[in-house]
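Q&A FORM
Asked by: J.P.
Topic: structure of Glycosidase

PROVIDED:
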Amino acid sequence: MRFPVDQLIFGPEDVDLSHSPLAGYLDRETYVLGAFNPGLTRLGNGNLLIMVRIAEALRNPVENGYIHSIRFADGSYVCDAWPLDSVDISDPRVFSLNQANWKTLALTSMSWLLPVELSPDGLRVEAVHYDRIIAPAGNWQCYGVEDARISNVEGRWLMTTCSVSPERQATSLYSSANALDWKFESIVLDHQNKDMLIFEGQIDGMYWAQTRPLGDLYFAYPPDSPWRAGPSINLATSYDAFHWKPHINPGIRPHAATTMRIGGGAPPIRFEDGWLSLWHGVEPNDGVGTYRTYWSLLDGKNPSLILRTDHKPILEPNDMLIQPLAHRIYLRDIVFTTGIADAGDHFIVASGEADLACRITHIPKTSFTN
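REPLIED BY: S.T.
REPLY: Here is the structure written out as tokens.
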């Protein structure tokens, strides 16, 4: 599907690593592996803000028979060394420990968040706010802060992120009165969940969120069910946005006719009489999978009810967009939508392209009225 605006707006070559929170701590050269998966919101001045995930990696992680990873520790950054014969390095993003009794990973990069201010249409960079970087601040995120999602709820900005550590892969909450100055609040989900999305508005005085718990075991639906077992998008409610209770009814589930793994994308936004939810589906391929963006319109009072949806993707990976960055490509077939903003007759949608750069797409609202 073609849209009037569909382009990259910010990428690795736009990042000045002299401002990195890692600067001065490591005796090894680093580089920007990717600048991607941007949270999106509209500021009070009318401009847009994208909160860009910067994955900063070691230029030469393998030395003298060891592979190294970066870790935040006691206010600084250190490198850990793992013997090459004890790990699997087939995935460029992570390496797995062969001698563990269960699946155990380490990262090849450290992620931190960079606020980038855009013009109201999202097509021009106005400012890069290096003075407002969000970096690891404790052992609960010693392997990085990933994939911000930003929601404006009744004039208050809430941002969820994935905090990665050996302790847990948890969801952390930040709050702000202006979407530029952020306060870390707490961990709000204490289980493996990379896709917590807070609805952009309350329902009967309650906060709502989509979650996506992960596990190694799923129970089968009946053979004639329209649904397929696997990771799904669940729902939770809260009185204060800090303490969350799972909703009794499920949310969006993978359809039996597909082989997709699904997860949350952009925070649900008000549209017509419901909530527009953009989510991702992943089809197996020879690599990490093909990521596409899909949509569902949820009931305005009971988001567990799907009013309409489309099994065709609204947004697909676009190799043509990343050709100028061909020398940096390490993954393909990925578009990962992480933000949405209302712009009158269309939505401005922010995505990560190929885990490499930030993509801005203008999608007419008529695209969601089938």
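FOLLOW-UP: The CA atoms of residues 55 and 111 lie 4 Å apart.
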